[in-house]
Write a structure and sequence with these properties.
Number of helices: 11
Bound molecules: NADP nicotinamide-adenine-dinucleotide phosphate
Order of helices and strands: EHEEHEHEHEEHEEEHEHEHHEHH
Oligomer: single chain
CATH topology of one domain: Rossmann fold
Shape: globular
Helix content: 40-55%
Number of strands: 13
CATH architecture of one domain: 3-Layer(aba) Sandwich
Strand order of the largest sheet: 3-2-1-4-5-6-11
Strand content: 15-25%
Radius of gyration: 19 Å
Length: 318
């Protein structure tokens, strides 16, 4: 199995999901670090403008065996950042999050020197019963586990925020103005967070020695021990000097009503939705806390550098 080494020997990497919020940040960091980058991207992507012109595009999806074969050929590593995060049924999530992982592993397995694979799962995979999304991310990991001859590693990020994010930005903007909506109303809920640039840093750290992480699954975060409760979240996002925030409890029944309506509309229009009843269960779970920074850092040398206060100011003040 080839191991990516120092700068002079830098080879080709295949990245999937490069048009997405997280993938595009990883894409730019890899190119800046001198890797030859190949991206598997669908020409029909509405976000094709985010592809870096210095990346070599392989046109296709995770369902396209030919494109996958072209993408992995000669690569020293594969970073799977493609995934479906919106949907209202398991079938919506399955093609990218489960079947796509299998297709990618099969393409890698067919190589005479199979590249190492870093797969972006989600902290949600620790509770597959909670939603179709969480189940699909866990199923994707189970698919990987079936390829035990491959050199794979899984990262399970928690909520990721940063430039280019569209899901968390409005909640962060509201909290900065002093209004903090609390899904389910439980302010003692604990959540880990991670800035997208620290996640990109973790990918680069993994690339230094993928084999050292063989078959490891790491849930990583921004280094805030035991995550944030809502008061800590508000203090970090708003700053303590700006006065007390107003916490706005969002009752689960209300969220479920919106989610139910959303699901009906999605059923009629085919639109992919974020707020489903499964998402409500995710949003109101009492803890989503990552615990593997030390294990990952010990091997890779990675440490997160951007705390929530700093990351959020950078987002709104730049
Ligand atoms: N954002 C978070 O807070 C977070 C937290 C934990 C884990 N994750 C995981 O991180 C990954 C990326 O998330 P994100 O927030 O960046 O999502 P995103 O912005 O929706 O981007 C998803 C990417 O995957 C691509 N994609 C989706 N289905 C595909 C398919 N069948 N074949 C090829 N490409 C496909 C999309 O391409 P198109 O442009 O063509 O649609 C896009 O590039 C996902 O696996 C997600 O589960 C995200």
């Amino acid at each position: 199995m080839p191991e990516p080494t120092g700068t002079a020997a830098k080879g080709s990497i295949l990245l999937t999901g490069a048009t997405g919020f997280i993938g595009r940040r990883i894409q730019d960091r890899l190119i800046a670090e001198g890797w030859h980058l190949r991206v598997l991207a669908r020409s029909a992507s509405a976000r094709a403008e985010f592809l870096n012109p210095r990346a070599e595009q392989v046109d296709g999806s995770l369902a396209d065996a030919g494109a996958l074969a072209r993408g992995v050929a000669g690569s020293v590593a594969v970073i799977n950042c493609a995934g479906t995060v919106r949907g209202s049924s398991f079938e919506d999530f399955m093609p990218a999050n489960v079947t796509g992982v299998r297709g990618l592993c099969e393409a890698i397995e067919r190589q005479s020197a199979p590249p190492a694979l870093l797969h972006l799962s989600s902290l949600a995979a620790e509770a597959p019963e909670i939603s179709d999304y969480a189940r699909s991310k866990r199923e994707g990991e189970r698919v990987l586990a079936g390829f035990d001859t491959l050199n794979w590693t899984v990262l399970r990020p928690p909520a990721v925020y940063g430039p280019g994010d569209t899901e968390m930005r409005s909640a962060l903007a509201l909290a900065r103005r002093g209004l903090v909506p609390v899904p389910g109303g439980d302010r003692s809920q604990r959540l880990s967070m991670l800035h997208v640039d620290d996640l990109a840093g973790a990918v680069l750290a993994w690339l230094r020695s993928p084999s050292a992480h063989l078959h490891h699954v790491y849930a990583i975060d921004d280094g805030k021990s035991d995550g944030y409760d809502w008061s800590e979240f508000a203090a970090a996002v708003r700053g303590t000097e700006k006065g007390r925030p107003l916490f706005l409890p969002l009752p689960t029944t209300l969220l479920n009503s919106f989610a139910w309506l959303n699901e009906r509309i999605a059923g009629l229009t085919g639109r992919a939705i974020m707020l489903s009843r499964g998402k409500v269960r995710e949003l109101t779970r009492s803890r989503w806390v990552a615990t593997d920074n030390e294990a990952f850092g010990r091997i890779s040398g990675w440490t997160p550098e951007i705390r929530l206060a700093e990351g959020v100011s950078g987002l709104f003040e730049s």
